[in-house]
Amino acid sequence: MTSLHRWPLRLASLAACLLFWQVAASQRLDLGLLTFTYVPTPTAVLEAAWALVESSKLLPHLTSSLARVFAGYLSAAVVGVLLGLAIGRSKWAEDSLLPPLEVLRPIPAVAWIPLAILMFPSSELSMIFITFTGALFPILLNTVHGVEAVDPRLVASARSLGAGRLAILREVVLPGATPSIVTGLAIGMGTSWFCLVTAEMISGQFGIGYYTWESYTIQRYPEIIVGMLLIGLLGMGSSGLVRYLGGLFTPWYRGRGNA
Questions:
Q1: Is residue 257's pLDDT more than 50?
Q2: Contacts with 215 (C-beta within 8 Å, 6 or more apart), sequence order
Q3: Do 95 and 18 belong to one domain?
Q4: Are residues 70 and 26 both part of a single domain?
Q5: Residue 54: is its pLDDT beyond 60?
Q6: pLDDT in tens, 123-154
Q7: What one-character DSSP code corresponds to residue 39?
Q8: Do 140 and 184 contact (CB within 8 A), yes or no?
Q9: What's the rounded Cα separation, in Å, for the pair 176 and 147?
Q10: Which residues constitute the domain of residue 13?
């Protein structure tokens, strides 16, 4: 089945979800543990989205969130890949760097917010830092796993042919680990959006997360869903962009995917 032939099923799935949402919200469906009594209908959400587009608020919210995400994400990509290569290739780096990173990894983004506010002189830098921490660990761990998964026989063969450490890293390790690194970069982009929205809800004055939280506090329920959908679309689009760019750098691996 080609990608083109798969699109009707995908669109039908989205349409079914929208239809269920419309029926459940308009009929105020109450399932006991789950109720749609106060959930706005897709029509109300569409009206709120159009009102946001016509207002002067959309562009500041979008630019603020995008700038924070990409500042934190790009920093995490550089640090995560470099640390992952070092940890994956060096036992000394693994023993000295990985234990403290593993202690920090399970800490959720919201737990970093008070400390980030104390450490950084501005709320903008603290939000970028939280985005950085969210993206760092998926990138780091996938890079480590990708490096460790490289066939040792390839490294030994390159070394027997006279290749030095930099040549082995450039010609053997990086090509072998790149698919895993790309996966980590795509996951990191998604988690960076999650962490940014959490930070903006508490520390932001502009941004999609701030818009969503403000809509909740003033009980504008359609606007809450507009903010949620914007976050989902931006996260999906940016992760897709990362995967697309990764595919351009790994043409030998892209061909293994499902048709």
A1: no
A2: 221, 223, 224, 226, 227
A3: no
A4: no
A5: yes
A6: 889 899 999 998 999 999 999 999 988 888 88
A7: P
A8: yes
A9: 7
A10: 1-39
